[in-house]
Amino acid sequence: MSTWADRIRTEIAKAVIGQQDVIERMLVALLADGHVLLEGMPGLAKTLLIRSLGTALGLQFERIQFTPDLLPSDVIGTMVFQPSDGKFSPHKGPIFANLVLADEINRAPAKVQSALLEAMQEKQVTLGGETNKLPKPFFVMATQNPVEQEGTYPLPEAQRDRFLFKLIVDYPDEKSEFEMMRRWGQVTEKPDLQPVSNGEELLELRQEVDSVYVSEEMQAYILRLVRATRAMASGEKPEEHYLSYGASPRASISIFQSARALAFLRGQDHVSPSIIKDIFLDAMRHRVGLTYEAEAEEITTDQALKQILDSTPAPSKIRK
Asked: Global pTM?
């Protein structure tokens, strides 16, 4: 397992410096068969990171630049009339790829964003009344800008909930930024990435992820954390009424799956409380909403979730 992850990380490092935590979460999402939403300021290599991941994995990669005038048919495809036989045949869109980059997803209107829903959840697309299966494996990795809101369309809750993770891409540290400037200041030198894995290997690794043990105590711990978001949203404790709505049952499944994948990635055969705590914020921050009072007090979603994490006791028993 570590060999696979090391191969991917080494190849990505040819183009992307730093961001090791984000890369680890993206590998977890691949193993857990989940989609990822990356949020960060412009110029932080979000697009480059996803493109490099696709190249290293040896997967078919497609990039869709979301714009206000984009149509659903630009994403999923359409039916094209063939004069030779007088029939319509499907012209498949860029969604028919293993790894799809939805760049600046919040720049497209809701009807385009909703075109992704069936693909993300059901791994299929309907064209001309016929169901077309998407290739395996299939992932959507989307980016969005957190500050430039003019001309953008916030993702609906139903759309956000279909992402396994929402990852925050932050500025690099000084050492990494210096290395970027030194390495990429040479305009003639461009990274040349090569495939070091393939879709078949990834699908085989997923079967091994399913063998990671999750005790009943760990399952109950996950459920307590998720249900605590709903309790906070209900206003049971007015002094801690920071959330306007809690997480759906999909959150429990996402944490369960991603905790298994992270444990597997780190060479563990079971899920521990520390694994669940590590994954909790990334799997939850896009599934809950803040109250107006919390926003007025400048409380962030992560702060509210950390309070839940700190106040929910973790079990001590982790294995049979």
From this structure: 0.89
